[in-house]
Please model this.
Amino acid sequence: MAQVTFIAFDGSEMQIDATGGISLMENAVANGVDGIEAQCGGNAYCGTCRVIPQGAWGDRLGPRGDVEEGLLSSLDEDNPGVRLSCQITVSEALDGLVVRLPESQS
Ligand code: FES
Model:
């Protein structure tokens, strides 16, 4: 279990208790987080699950994977900090994670 805070583009916050072993996207959808549409169901194809880790979390999550990098490049994502939440697996190490949602998902 990890406590994760999602900050919408308008600044409103939602905190969830995320379950380990599944993706951050799946946790967001299960908890009704607005702005995480996840149209492709987590197949790194749609780009509607983007999040921007805040503060030191960008480094702590490590670099984008190849599939993640490929999709974000093809979508001309220009923020290097953006991640696909469907490609982030939740663990206790992510307790306290704070992510912001991009304007495109507002
Ligand atoms: Fe489609 Fe993440 S859910 S790219």
Q: What stands out?
A: The helical segments are 24-30, 57-60, 66-74. The first strand starts at residue 2 and ends at 7. The chain has a mean pLDDT of 96. Residues 66-74 form the longest helix (9 residues).
